[in-house]
Design a protein that fits this description.
23 helices; alpha+beta; nine-stranded mixed beta sheet; elongated
């Protein structure tokens, strides 16, 4: 028993000795680590390659020394803490060798750009997913658009208020032009403008939309109004009326245009352009992925802001910045580029455009894909404060790109280098020798590479999937465009507005009715049906006009469009006297010549002018010159 008690006592003493030694070792290790950290900070402060003050946000002060070296280096530093004081004195004598090793460790774990931006080689560890890229609202068309027809969907974007602005200024321009002509030519026949009304204006739009669907927008108008052409053109209006509407169509007040042009180069089209953008954003909520790019609308006429982009097929035209849904290319908002202002050339145009276009989606958690014209590191950091992320290509001359990511002959083909800086990822991919693609993303935070043969990073694959939103929209607009040849740029851009309204109405109608097939032919049928619904009310009123229905080709076109036969003798008359049912028609379907005009014979010249018409009151032959209406002559009217 005594031996056991002594052994236990010895054991307790032994355990106490062990614990005291462990505690002493911990104290010495902690002191040695502190000495190494102070030594490392002194060495880095004396070095030329000093981290800037902005890196303190990315590297915490307590972990600065540990983050600048690899994990293995950290283990060695901890092991060195177990050495005695004599070993530490020996290491202090070899300080110059340690300075060189620390420089190697600091550069091996990250990259430094020309402007001093530090890029870490490994991504920061995040214990919780970020709040961005999580859309918490319902995406797609608004609920009140579910049961709308083609025509009602189109009127959501091209509203009657927009049509009223165009009709009012068009009538004003035509009346003033005819008044000036009549004043200068009193001896000639006086011209009188028939006011353009809403139904007739919709019929005019129907002709433009249908001509685009039939790819006849480049044909001469005379060819479109031939009897063998598409019947909607002849049924909607005459060719002279179509020409006159195109001639006098205006989109703003001419009296205040000069004053507005001083501050806005796009003043002639600004009102309806602003209304269109408001309607586009009002009736559709985009998905979580958006695209920003430019559209170059082809136009070679004279403007104050014509752009030349050699990479585009048209090369010359009017440039519009667009933000679209990356999934279905729905146009959300467009910003017309009017060149430099009076203050001079604008700097950082790309950043300003992106901020303007994404402002309505601030805090929504969406991602924006863009090209190297817009993408910058300051923009990515700024949009993160708006809870928005970006993915885009970078120009290779940016100062915050480290030299290790530039083009180099030593880099292997299909290799990738990643860099991480303040929740922003930089990616440099070599698709082939002496070529590099640099991507910047605030959405991706891992160095993921696909398993495909080309070993593309996940950032590039995502960019390829979501970059074509605006380009696809531009392609769809050009397939069935209403654009016609003109020397007036407001009219040319009006065609673009009409194309955008048609495309938006088709996408909205398709999203509400997924049972239809989404392809080019279905969109063509949609446009044709839309044109038919736009002009049907006006064609119905034209079918009640006996003078119009006497033209055989027009009568056939109206009957073809309405889908029923129309008897010109069955219309309601103002008098009980009417044409006899036995009236003979010639080969063209018109009434044969009835005789000589009664009024011409009574005149002092006694002309013998043959005519096909008769007065429905006195049944005397009457010519077109002496017709007051389509059915009454001058004598009976008096």
């Amino acid at each position: 028993m005594a031996s056991q008690d002594s052994a236990m006592e010895n054991g307790e003493d032994f355990s106490k000795d062990v614990t005291t030694e462990i505690q002493e070792n911990k104290v010495t290790r902690f002191q040695s680590n502190k000495n190494l950290e102070k030594k490392f900070e002194a060495e880095v402060s004396d070095d030329d390659c000093v981290l800037d003050s902005s890196d303190d946000e990315y590297f915490p002060p307590s972990q600065a020394a540990a983050s600048d070296c690899d994990d293995t280096d950290g283990e060695i530093a901890l092991n060195n803490g177990d050495k005695d004081q004599e070993d530490e004195d020996k290491e202090s004598e070899n300080g110059e060798d340690e300075d060189e090793e620390s420089e190697v460790k600091a550069t091996a774990s990250g990259m430094t750009a020309k402007d001093g931006t530090q890029w870490a080689a490994t991504s920061p560890i995040e214990h919780q997913a970020g709040r961005y890229n999580i859309v918490r609202e319902r995406c797609g068309p608004n609920r009140n658009t579910n049961m709308l027809s083609n025509l009602d969907t189109f009127k959501l974007f091209f509203t009657p208020e927009m049509a009223d602005i165009i009709i009012r200024h068009t009538n004003k321009k035509a009346i003033s032009t005819y008044a000036n002509y009549n004043e200068k030519n009193p001896e000639k026949k006086q011209l009188e403008w028939k006011n353009l009304e809403l139904q007739e204006f919709y019929a005019f739009l129907a002709i433009l939309i249908t001509s685009g669907a039939n790819n006849s927008n480049t044909d001469n108008a005379r060819e479109m109004w031939q009897p063998y052409s598409y019947p909607l053109y002849r049924a909607a209006m005459s060719i002279n009326r179509f020409w006159n509407i195109i001639r006098f169509i205006r989109f703003d007040d001419a009296n205040t245009r000069a004053q507005r042009l001083e501050n806005d180069k796009a003043a002639p089209i600004r009102d309806i352009w602003t209304m269109l953008n408001s309607n586009l954003a009002k009736h559709y909520k985009p998905t979580e992925y958006l695209t920003i790019h430019e559209q170059l609308y082809p136009y070679r006429g004279r403007t104050r802001f014509t752009q030349y982009i050699p990479s585009k097929p048209a090369k010359y035209g009017i440039k519009v910045w667009w933000i679209c849904d990356a999934e279905n290319s729905y146009p959300l908002t467009g910003q017309l580029y009017t060149g430099k202002s009076k203050d001079g050339r604008e700097k950082n145009v790309g950043e300003r455009v992106v901020k303007d276009l994404v402002a309505p989606y601030r805090g929504s958690g969406r991602n924006i894909t863009m090209d190297n014209f817009f993408t910058t590191l300051p923009l990515a950091k700024f949009l993160l404060s708006w809870n928005l992320t970006i993915v885009g290509t970078l120009k290779k001359n940016k100062a915050y790109i480290p030299p290790a990511m530039a083009v180099s002959k030593t880099r292997e083909e299909l290799s990738t280098v990643f860099g991480f800086h303040e929740k922003v990822t930089l990616c440099s991919y070599v698709p082939k020798k002496n070529k590099v693609v640099i991507m910047l993303s605030s959405m991706h935070h891992e160095a993921k590479i696909s398993d495909s043969a080309k070993k593309k990073p996940e950032i590039i694959e995502f960019y390829n999937r979501s970059k074509a939103g605006v380009d696809t929209m531009d392609k769809l607009l050009g397939r069935y465009t209403t654009k016609r040849s003109t020397q007036r740029w407001p009219l040319a851009f009006f065609y673009n507005i009409l194309d955008i309204a048609c495309l938006a109405s088709y996408i909205l109608y398709y999203e509400n009715n997924k049972m239809i097939v989404k392809n080019s032919y279905e969109r063509r049928l949609f446009y044709r049906q839309l044109g038919r619904e736009l002009c049907i009310p006006f064609v119905e009123s034209r079918s009640n006009n006996a003078q119009i229905m006497r033209h055989f080709s027009t009568k056939v076109a109206i009957e073809s469009l309405l889908g029923r036969a129309i008897n010109p003798n069955a219309h309601q008359r103002t008098s009980s006297v009417s044409l006899t049912p036995q009236t003979q028609l010639d080969s063209t379907g018109r009434k044969k010549i009835t005789g000589v005009c009664y009024e011409c014979l009574q005149s002092e010249f006694k002309k013998r002018r043959k005519t096909r018409k008769i007065c429905l009151v006195c049944e005397n032959p009457i010519c077109q010159e002496h017709c007051i209406t389509t059915t009454t002559c001058e004598g009976c009217t008096k």
